[in-house]
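Review form for a predicted model. The reviewer records the input and the model, then writes brief findings.
Reviewer: anonymous (R2)
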Amino acid sequence: MKLTLLKHSLVKATLLAGLAVAGLVGCNTVQPEKAPMAGKTELLWLGQAGFRITTPGGKNIVIDPWLSGGPKTPPNIKSDFSALGKIDVLLVTHAHVDHLGDAPALAKLNNTVLYGPADMVTPLQTLGLLPANLGHRFNKTGNVKPLPGIKVTAVAAEHSSLIVFNNPATGKNESHPAGEAMGYIIELENGFKIWHMGDTGLFGDMKFIFDRYKPDLVLIPIGGNFTMDPEDAAFAMKNWIPSKQVIPMHYNSNPLTKGTLAEFEAAMKGSTTKVVPMTEGQTLSF
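Model under review:
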């Protein structure tokens, strides 16, 4: 009798142990963490500070689209904005014409929200250039998550911002304050981070921004006059921003911005950061 009971006890214990391992008896199954999305990031340079980023998830992010007036805009896009494809996220760093450019028109064409500095979006709306439902205001260190897996954080830029508006009632241009310029840390579905600096001069918190957000790729202005020139841009990269890769931008489109790629590459000698040159209309994968 005792032997039979012992056998039953052993069988019961074995069954319970198996069920416990399977997570079926008083135990919650632990789900593995979702792995980051695999895939590549593609950048198309639209000229000046304008880019289209195609994310690993196949979404299109467009930044600072100076298209119709941009002298280096790819011809197929300049003549037909739909050649950009569907724009899922639209970002503008500040209101100068070579950055705001055609963003309001693209927002309306794609029924896409324009994300930008708070005091830039408001006058765009009050002047009737942007419908109220197509503008999202945010500010430095604020962030938005416009699509699953995509996060955009606004960071400082040392620059100014102004809207020049042609008043249809008078036919004259008017100048309207547009808050402060910003840069963006753009984090994609696979964790890859891009720092689009917008227009900026040197400032010490560039080091803080890199240390806090650790971007993998930096898009840096080098043209001078309105922004850092090649030497200042290289100083920032070599001393404060040791990212893996950097793409120079905001040059070659305005006679007042005389900085060149060759000057930047020369100034970057000795840096561990890889300079990735682009030409307008070129697409690169990361």
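Findings: Residues 1-34 have pLDDT under 50 and may be disordered.
Further findings: The chain is about 25% helix and 25% strand.
Recommendation: see findings above.
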